[in-house]
Write a structure and sequence with these properties.
Largest sheet: none
Order of helices and strands: HH
Radius of gyration: 9 Å
Strand content: under 5%
Shape: flat
Distance between the termini: 14 Å
Structural class: mainly alpha
Number of strands: 0
């Protein structure tokens, strides 16, 4: 899962990165 997320972040624009990072952090806490 981590590898998949990293690939998504690399492809995602900087703007989407902020939202994606917040969602990623939430998933990590859960």
């Amino acid at each position: 899962m981590e590898g998949n997320t990293t690939s998504t972040f690399k492809k995602a624009p900087v703007e989407a990165l902020d939202t994606g990072f917040e969602r990623w952090m939430t998933n990590e806490m859960i």
